What we know:
alpha/beta, PAS-assoc_C, PAS_fold, EAL domain-containing protein, Biofilm_reg_signaling
Amino acid sequence: MAIPLGQAQLDEELSGRLDALCAMLHEEPFSTASIERLGAELTALGHLGKFGLRCTAEVLGKGLLALPEFQPVERYAERIALAIGALGTGFTGANTESVLAQQEGMQKSLLKAVRDANWNLKESEARFNEVVTSSTNGVLIVDIEGRLLRTNTAICDILGHSQDELVGVLLTDLIAPGFTEMLQTAMAELVGGTAERIRQSQRMLRKDGEAARLSLTASLLRGADDEPSHFVVVVEDGTELELLQSELKRQALHDVLTGLPNRQFFTTQLETALRKTDTGYGITFFHLDIDAFGMVSNSVGGRVAERLLQHVARRLEVLLAGEKAMIARFDGDEFGVLLENTATTPGIGTIMKSINDDLLEPTYVDGHGLAVSVSAGVVHRPDSAAEPVDLLRAADTALRRAKMRRRGQWEVFHPDQDAEERRDHAVAVAMPGAWEDGEITVRYRPIVRLADGVVSGVEAALRWERPDAEVLDHDRCAALAEATGLILPLGEWLLRVASGQSAWWRQRGQFDRSLVVRLTAHQSSDADLVERVVRVLGETGLKTHELALSMPAEVLPESDAADNLSVLAGLGVHVGIDDFGLGPLDPSTVSDLPVKSVRVARGLVERRSPFVAALMPLMREAGVTVAVDGVSSEEQAQWWRAAGADFATGDLFGTAGAPGDFLRGLEPR
């Protein structure tokens, strides 16, 4: 039995436990076991009943999320929901033990009271009042026929009846329809001796006709002749606790900010929909991502960004209200939409257009007129035997492909394309080990002057000699390394090896022309690019004017890449542009930056692009030389020579080879 504390003592006790709870929420790894123990301790304070537990949960649920130490909300919301549930669980367990202890104590006391009733009725009633009257749980003394003999104040409060109204009433008349048989069967088991105590969830009728959700525990009292005498029934009002548990469960499966289901709940429903889907129409799963959401958050603040997320959630619900759809918020600015298709379900393109058309209409949030678009990865009509985790991964893969193009795009997942991408990923992740084992080497190919065929430079390239597999050339190696981030250390290694080789040739008088190294987009934008180049040149002894570096044209609009190019040019490095001619801004890039050369994109070389040929006079006026890559025939070489190109590389002039092979290729034939 709990002894209520004074106000000051209670405040001190609760303050200490609140501090302990906050500390537990920060613990790593996070565990709810200690929080359950904390909940159990609350029963000893003597103040926390059904209303107190509900108020405690409401205060903690709102108050903890507002504390600075639990920001951002997304990081701690799940922990706080689990903690409140654990607190309720601990309290419930301890309270249940208390109920059982009370019941056992009452049983012993009542046995003695019944045995002594013939001698001292007053003493019997005093004992009953001592044990029963002060209990916060309802207590009923029921005869063998099932009629109520005595009740306490608590059961009167629960059911809304007075004690006079309850005495003499059949217990089964107070049970809600549909639950009577369960209670009768259990009480028959008590009389028959097959059970010593029963405990079950019950529904009892209040005076106003509403059903109260209760936990009912009953045991049998026997007289001196060991014959059944009375039933002792203890009733605990579980309405508030059940509602609290239901709310905690809802919070654990829903996003706090938008109220939408979260990823966990969505995954469960996705599995259910897969198994029950109409094979004629199937389901469609959209993985949506808000474009440029980071820009919104950084510019107008987190509060406005959160309200924008709420706006997107509401608009998605409105737009898909006519469909059998489930909308969930995943992480950050990502949403999931599960459509169970019917004969009238619009096409994917129609749905995406309606979403983007609606979201691109400005909405005003705290005075800011905001409009966004969404990109999407779509899985359409997957196999009903598919696993939800595989569909989530597939949609995410399709989303990444969609966002590689431009904003507001969508792409449907294709298994064949995914299989090819997985093979590429397998090769890419094996690359570091291959580099360590010496399978990746540096090769050299000649750069010739188209006017006379003289070798005017050497280009360094990667080559991967894969055991029992195809050999990968420089473009393939660079693309794989770019995808994993390996390109930064691997690219610096290529530059160091090639610069050292070029310096060695110069010292021996074997080859003294420019060394050309092509950079990827990631390398070009690397904040440490200039430092890497200066360090390598210092280590190898190669002069800045003896090195030529080229960057992809597509990356130069980015300030980091353009800044790197300008600084390198200022140091004396010959800088150029690769894949020239693919973008409409390429000519202006040449005039805006200190570019010395351009290399025409290989696809345009093969097609003998008249557009690029028309730009040749402009390049000459700007003092920029033009190189073409991928020349494989004399006819191609003649065409580009006539068009005004200055230099060329390709199989016609020699493939990439080892240092010795490159030098032998320079010897007169």
